[in-house]
From TrEMBL:
Protein name from the UniProt record: PAX-1 PRODUCT=SCLEROTOME development regulator/DNA-binding transcriptional activator
Keyword Nucleus listed: yes
Residues covered by region (Disordered): 134-153, 317-353
Pfam families: PAX
Source organism per UniProt: Coturnix coturnix (Common quail)
Length: 353
DNA sequence: TTCGTAACGGTTGAA
DNA sequence: TTTTCAACCGTTACG
């Protein structure tokens, strides 16, 4: 957390280690690729490492989304209350049942599917820690307080993970089929682009600029230090963890170093079609005033909207299912053989640089 | 020179 | 409240 101000990469670009690039940059990468600009050139222009360009383009090709994945958090819990109840039922019905038998029954009864069924060890732990304690004293069960076949929570085939809100689980690393949940939103900001619309990606900066937060007042309006950012925490937006993940990259991109001001020179506001500039790049002076830090983007300008074309399509999935995997999963990210799959409406004139 | 990707050090957030 | 762990990130370096 000491890299509040970011670091400078070999290309002179500024980045915050561990944090996603601002969505504006991510979008720009995709846009430039759409224009036929080679990734290596994009890398140089935006001063983003070519590895990152490659990864973002590969992800886009794979998912149709420019957004980063949901950062942080733990694996979705599989031992939901419903599952625990069923396990309890099974144990009550057959005190001698083995954990692996419970597991099989969870599958057979449709309580879980193969993607979210607890492991045998998890079941054992549940039996030991939860059900076992509940069953004490006086025998393995709690005196039959639970009916043998209590309705419990009706099994919802759509239920998979106890994520709050409309979000889908970050199942990016799951296999092709994450389960009963249609993968259309898997791993992406679920409410995108509604709750945190394109404006949050592209518009806020300009909104900030327009509202004067930039140009001398950013210090007060937008504290440069990450930890000074109010309201940007994991509880502020309870319904959108991934949204946060998607926007925090901008929210928390303080990056005052001048390196990324190059983005402004390479990517002037006029590079965007009028539709996209509406409410986004209203400041005619440019995208980022030279010498200014990247302004964090976030929920500071909820009124800003973008009417431009299919910009949102870049934020949405091109295809259901998100199988973008990181290196840890074997990195079967799609080859960038077709980096120019169209983003209709994103006809952006080549940079005037 | 270009591109894909493993390794690395970092951040984040749920448990 | 703190710690742990497993997600994710972008950069770097290598092939």
């Amino acid at each position: 957390m000491e890299h509040t101000y970011g670091e400078v990469n070999q290309l002179g670009g500024v980045f915050v280690n561990g944090r996603p690039l601002p969505n504006a940059i991510r979008l720009r990468i995709v846009e430039l690729a759409q224009l036929g600009i080679r990734p290596c050139d994009i890398s140089r222009q935006l001063r983003v490492s070519h590895g990152c360009v490659s990864k973002i383009l590969a992800r886009y090709n794979e998912t149709g989304s420019i957004l980063p994945g949901a950062i942080g958090g733990s694996k979705p819990r599989v031992t939901t209350p419903n599952v625990v109840k069923h396990i309890r039922d099974y144990k009550q019905g057959d005190p001698g049942i083995f954990a692996w038998e419970i597991r099989d029954r969870l599958l057979a009864d449709g309580v879980c599917d193969k993607y979210n069924v607890p492991s045998v060890s998890s079941i054992s732990r549940i039996l030991r820690n939860k059900i076992g304690s509940l069953s004490q004293p006086g025998g393995p069960y709690d005196g039959g307080k639970q009916p043998p076949t209590q309705p419990a929570l009706p099994y919802n085939p759509l239920y998979q993970y106890p994520y709050p809100g409309p979000m889908a689980p970050p199942a990016a690393k799951m296999s092709a089929h994450p389960g009963p949940v249609p993968a259309a939103h898997v791993g992406l900001p679920r409410s995108w682009p509604s709750a945190h619309s394109v404006s949050n990606i592209l518009g806020i900066r300009t909104f900030v600029e327009q509202t004067g937060a930039l140009g001398g007042t950013e210090g007060s309006a937008y504290p440069p230090k990450m930890e000074d950012w109010p309201g940007v925490n994991r509880t502020a937006f309870p319904s959108a963890q991934a949204d946060k993940a998607a926007v925090e990259g901008d929210i928390k991109y303080p990056q005052p170093a001048p390196g990324l001001s190059s983005v402004g020179s390479f990517l002037p506001a006029c590079a965007y079609p009028p539709g996209n500039q509406h409410g986004v790049y209203g400041a005619p002076g440019g995208y980022i005033p030279p010498g200014h830090p990247w302004q964090p983007q976030g929920h500071h300008g909820p009124g800003v909207t973008v009417h431009g074309g299919d910009l949102a399509s870049a934020m949405a999935f091109k295809q259901p299912g998100r199988e973008v995997t990181d290196r840890k999963a074997g990195s079967p990210v799609g080859k960038s053989s077709d980096p120019l799959s169209p983003i209709h409406g994103l006809s952006i004139p080549a940079s005037s640089s």
